[in-house]
């Protein structure tokens, strides 16, 4: 299992220390939630923040764009050090074009869908994707409860992935803890994003280990 702590729940006054701490405890990805106050009713951070972190951190930068214009800002995020760059299906008219643009920028393209979006809309895009991010809460805030409808979407993608031998990772985001993480793993998830559960834990090491070993 790949574990991706979401920095949304970190203490931003000590961001580098927080990120190095989860890296030390075995997380492989760093999930970076970018919100523009337009696609979602919250504002977080832009590329310069993680560009500053990049030289000090070995984690894979998994950037989740919750912004209305994921085309316009793509180059800035790619140059800032995103490894995976994930946009929301709901924000674009031509997702295939945007995926090709991300590939031309040498970032791994990912796509995300909100809880109400049908997973089958992604069918024709799957061969080109490096990551599919299933939202198990409404995007915008950490600390919400897991929506079990995500499990069917994960299972659907798992089946497609195995049948067609696709390379994309299946990631799930929102309300993940040991219990919901196990359900996601059983459904076929490859990557678990967890904000609150990891950063607010008394023993981060134990919590990360538990997710890694699900
Ligand atoms: C929500 C974000 C999530 C969030 C998850 O819009 O995409 O990554 O940080 O937070 P928790 O793990 O607290 O639900
Ligand atoms: Zn996220």
Top keywords for this entry?
8 helices; binds D-xylitol-5-phosphate; TIM Barrel; single chain; globular; alpha/beta; 214 residues; 8-stranded parallel beta sheet
Spans of at least 5 consecutive residues whose pLDDT stays below 50 are none
The CATH architecture can be given as: Alpha-Beta Barrel
What general outline do the C-alpha atoms trace? globular
Briefly, what CATH class?
Alpha Beta
Radius of gyration, in angstroms, nearest whole number: 16 Å
Question: What's the helical proportion of residues?
Answer: 25-40%
How many β-strand runs?
Answer: 8
- What is the mean pLDDT? 98
- Hetero compounds: D-xylitol-5-phosphate, zinc ion
CATH superfamily: Aldolase class I
Order of strands across the main sheet? 1-8-7-6-5-4-3-2
End-to-end span in angstroms? Answer: 7 Å
Structurally, the number of domains stands at: 1
CATH T-level fold name: TIM Barrel
Strand content: 15-25%
Number of helices: 8
Decide which structural class fits the backbone. Answer: alpha/beta
Largest sheet: 8 strands, parallel
Folded structure, characterized:
With 214 residues, the protein is α/β, with parallel strands linked by helices. The chain has one domain (2-212): Alpha-Beta Barrel (TIM Barrel). 34% of the residues lie in helices and 20% in strands. It contains eight helices and eight strands; from the N terminus they run βαβαβαβαββαβαβαα. It has helices at 15-24, 47-53, 74-80, 95-104, 150-164, 178-187, 196-199, 204-212, and strands spanning 2-5, 29-35, 60-66, 84-88, 108-113, 131-135, 169-173, 191-194. Helix 3 (74-80) links the parallel strand 3 and strand 4 (84-88). The longest helix is centred in the C-terminal third of the chain and has 15 residues, at 150-164. Bound molecules: D-xylitol-5-phosphate and zinc ion. Zinc ion binds at residues 6, 31, 33, 64, 173, 193.
